[in-house]
Each structure stands twice: as C-alpha cells, then as structure tokens.
Amino acid sequence: MDRIENTKGNCLQCGKSLAGMTHTHHRKYCSITCSNKYRLRQKKPDVQAKLWQHKPEVFEEAMNMYWNGSGGAEIAREYEVPVGTVYSWIHDFGKQKERVDLVSLPRSEQLKRKPLKERFKMAETASEWRGILQEQAAQSEKGNEDQPIYLVCGLLHGQSVNKLASVIFENLKADLLSGNAFAFCNKCRNIITIISWKEPLYNIVKHIKTHGTFFWPHEDLGEAVEVTKAEFEHLITLKKHNKIRGAATAKNAEKP
Known about the structure:
With 256 residues, the chain is α+β, with helices and mostly antiparallel strands. It has nine helices and five strands, in the order H-H-H-H-H-H-H-E-H-E-E-E-E-H.
C-alpha cells in the first residue's frame, strides 16, 4: 500500500510545522502523542476529549494566560488543574495564537500578568509590595478600617515579648508604648504575632495557619511595611495554591 504524504508540512493533529524533523517527505505527525490522538479520533469520533473533563471556560482562561506569557505550572496552580493536563492543552492548542514574550514588556506590565505569589516576590520596594496588597484588598469587600499595622519585614525566629520589643526599639527605632501594632512572621511562615501596648497591658494576638503559609514582605524591602487593619485582614486570608499533580510535574514537564 502506498504511503500518504503530508503535502502541507504540518502535523495532522495539532497543526505544528514539521520543518526540521526527520522523514518530512512522508511524516504526518510531530510526535507519538499526536499520532495516537489522531488515530483515536479517527477510530472513535465521538470519544470525550480530555479537554472537556474541565469546564470550557477554565480551558479558555488557561490558554489566554499561556498566550499572555504565563507558564504551565503557574496556570495549573491558578486553576487547580493537573499540570500534565495544562501541558497537553499547550501542546495541542498553543500554536493557534502567537505567545507574548514577557521579557520584552515593561516591568509594570509584567507584574500585571504574573500570579499573585510572583508579584509579591518581584516587589522591589515596600511601597510597591503594599500597592499589590492594596489592589487585592480593594477587590475584596473588607471593611475600611484605617488603623495602621506595621509588618516587620523578614522572618523572625523566636517570638517572646522581650525579643519582639527589642526588635521594635532597636531595629525599627519605634516606640512600642505609642499604641501602634507591630506584626511579625515566624521562620515557617505559618504564625503571625501582633504586639501592641494598651495601658497597662501588652496585647498579643497570634494568627496560626493549619495549612499552607502566609504571604510576607521580605527583608530587602526595608524595616517594615505600614498597612491598614483592613489590608492586614485581607493579607491573612490570601491562599497559596499547591501544585496539582497529574501525569507530569512542573519539574519534569518543562514544555513550551
């Protein structure tokens, strides 16, 4: 039986160009994965595609994130979809639009397109870090309480009253007896301690996460970040999404 040549030079499944691959004169698919998918589709046209195990709107938003420059692992965390599924979508549909190169964009535009965790990491100043938090808090319906809370940058090991007081007096050059509230985060990022003075007592409040960790300003941002009480309440409710593992993981599935 004569071989059917692929005169278009593109993969019959995903449309990817076959230029530069071996045996291009009779090659029809860019990979074994595409070959298997195409043959399955021909054999069982009504088979439910892997795509529709998730809501179509999730798929559309995930692909828009990819075309806007986000990576597969970021998309998987954002929408809680197995990373293997995301890379399958990227492989099958990623070539339908030209992908934005984030490196070529201004830094402000890069920040807007990054997930919240990456935006906090990319912050270079305390005001920029707080600006990201203010933007997130504004999107929520928290109260408009303006009582200031000072987030002490960096992580602190040991949180006795004497140690916290010494950090406030010596490092921040602030007066704990002024009534202002100062917040500290431990090394594991799962406990936030707030200390303030209300005569004749020290008031100490702890927020403990049973799962996950808190977002917290790193020490390169300065000594402390001033936020309002409403912004702080929003900060402690933010969640870091864990990786959802599927057929592949972010470590061994580095694809386009």
